[in-house]
Fold Peptidyl-tRNA hydrolase.
Amino acid sequence: MSLPIRLLVGLGNPGSEYARTRHNAGFWLLDQAASDLGASFGMDRNFFGEVASARRGGERIHLLKPTTFMNRSGQAVGTMARFYKIQPEEVLVVHDELDLMPGQIKLKQGGGHAGHNGLKDIQAALGSPAFWRLRIGIGHPRTLNLAQQVAAFVLNPPRLEEQIDIDRAIDKGRKALPQLLDGQFEFAVRDLHTEN
């Protein structure tokens, strides 16, 4: 069995102007996870973000929403992981994914960052790509037949039909979290990757 997840990280950009944008899908799932765990976020400048913690089966789970901008997410993740002596394999980063359509959600460990600046910075800060990624599909402007550039696309809110699909994917992610927190990744993958 794999190491259970001890640090849940949601990626996004701070500030009300970004709250409903596609790039903040990681924040959306983290807010739901905190609610499910009976935890609430508070600002902690030592960890460069909003943090929450919960006990589950005697283990302490940390939740983190970096308040640095996306491309500096590693500053928050690295600081918290070092402070609590959390290994990269015990970290789950939840983020938006251009290569998946809205409604899709996929789990993977390691790999590249595919140009995602938040993942790139976290990989550098942890000194390893071995952390887990929960990828929430937001689609790509080309596959969604939009004329927007990627930078503008991720910093705009999804259209209503896309939001409904993204919310459905986030719900699937919430349901899989207990398995992830227990280190039962094969069960989580089966549930997450099954289309329903």
Observations:
- The chain has a mean pLDDT of 94.
- The radius of gyration is 15 Å.
- The first helix runs from residue 25 to 37.
- The domain at 7-193 is CATH 3.40.50.1470 (Rossmann fold).
